[in-house]
Structures are given as C-alpha cells and as structure tokens.
Design brief:
The chain is an alpha/beta fold. About 45% of the residues lie in helices and about 10% in strands. It is built from nine helices and eight strands. The strands form two sheets. Strands 1, 2, 3, 6, 7 and 8 form a six-stranded parallel β-sheet that branches. A two-stranded parallel sheet has the order 4-5. It starts with a helix and ends in a 6-residue tail after the last helix.
C-alpha cells in the first residue's frame, strides 16, 4: 500500500496525511493480529473444536499455585473432570508434588513458558525458544513428559512467537471463552460472563491463581451439566496429542 501511495504521488498530489492514515490503519491491523489470540494473523492457533456434540473443555493458566490449585483439583476430582493446566516453568520448583498430582489425576500439563515475563512477546525468537525449552525440561524432570501444547503468555503472538512455536514443534492452543478472572472479582459477574453464550466445542480459560474462579467453579460445572454439556479433556476435544 505504501508503494502504491508513493507511485500515485508521482501522478497526483497525495496529501501527507494519507501516509499518516496508512500508518495508523496498518498499526491497528497488526495490533489486532498480535493481541487477538484467535486472529490467526501470524500462525493458526486452535481456539475451539468444530463439533455438534455438547462438549467443552476447561483450561487453567499460570499455575501450579499452592494457594488454589489443590482446591481446584479437589473440585474437579469430585465430578471426575479432566482439565488442561498450562503451567509456568519457574513455578514448578518447590511444587513438584503438585505437578505430579496434576498428571496422576489425569489432567494435561501444557507449556505456558518458563518465565511468563512481562515483555515475553518482545524476546528474540531464540530467547523465546530457550524459555519454552526450560519449561519442557522442568516438566520432564518431574513427570517424565514433554508438553506439546503451548499457550502464549497473555495470548500475544507475533513473528518471533511463531518461530518459537514452529522450532519447538508445539501445537498452539488458545481459547474461545476468556473468563477475565484475574480482573473480575465479583463472583456473579464472572459467572454471568462465562455462561452468557456457551457453544459446543468451547475452550474456557481460567487461572488457578484466582480465588474467584475457585469459588464459582462448582456452580459453573453444575450449570454446564444442567444444560446438557459434557466437560472433556482438551486433547480429546481437539483430537490432538498432549505430549511429544
């Protein structure tokens, strides 16, 4: 588009603000592609399953968290529900028993980076790859498993994130329903948000670092069951392999 504008400028008097407008439009498109996990702008990310069955999956990010993960596991165990936990590698040390419990109780352990650094999306792709490998190594040290599923920190993608995903042969997984449970502290508002428009194949994003999620989880599970939905493990819902 810039080349076209420059070319037209030789024949017509293109005002300078046209270039500014082009830059703004381009920036908005790239911003949307980076921050909308389901945009598939840089790489295809699986955010839901194509199915007519009333099946959904539950996932948790940012653990393992000693404050809330054990209680969440108790709730899931009571209803025989298997979830996906996208863990942060630097939170595994000291919580090895908890990570083992996740696996032993039939839940998936996914890669959510080792550092989950604030500026993770600005890392060079080699540094990103090293970060993801460190998370894999920690998981393998404790469970003997190497995660294949990867969820980008903050849901942000860009060309470097794409390279790290491709280099590590990961399957990137997003979500179709973002609970915003790190922001919404009112239990009623959180429940309203996540139950507003449930569809077959939905993937729900929660955080096992959220007390609000812990408090509403039994009610949410009951709501799904009352509406005829089954909660299945993420890899089964998507028909993909959870481990390399």
């Amino acid at each position: 588009m810039l080349v076209v504008l420059v070319g037209l400028n030789f024949r017509y008097d293109i005002p300078f603000w046209s270039y500014i407008l082009l830059f703004i439009v381009y920036s908005l498109i790239v911003f949307y592609g980076c921050y909308n996990v389901g945009s598939n702008f840089f790489i295809k990310i699986i955010c839901s399953a194509k199915t007519e069955k009333k099946e959904v999956a539950i996932s948790f990010d940012d653990g393992p968290a000693i404050n809330y993960t054990p209680a969440i596991l108790e709730i899931l165990q009571q209803d025989n529900i298997k979830a996906a936990f996208f863990c942060i590698g630097n939170r595994i040390k000291g919580n090895e028993a908890l990570l083992k419990r996740l696996h032993e109780e039939g839940h998936i352990i996914g890669n959510h980076s080792y550092s989950h650094a604030t500026w993770f999306d600005l890392f060079p792709h080699k540094k990103m790859s090293a970060d993801l490998t460190m998370m894999d190594d920690e998981t393998k040290r404790v469970t003997g498993l190497t995660p294949r599923l990867f969820r980008p920190p903050y849901g942000v993608t860009n060309p470097n994130v794409k390279k790290a995903i491709v280099n590590g042969n990961y399957t990137p997984v997003g979500w179709s329903v973002r609970s915003l449970d790190t922001v919404i502290k009112n239990e009623g508002k959180l429940l309203e948000r996540i139950t507003r428009s449930i569809k077959p194949g939905d993937i729900f994003l929660f955080h096992d670092t959220s007390k609000t999620t812990l408090n509403i989880l039994p009610t949410f599970i009951n709501h799904l069951h009352k509406n005829g939905y089954s909660i299945v493990r993420l890899d089964k819902l998507l028909n993909i392999n959870a481990y390399a």
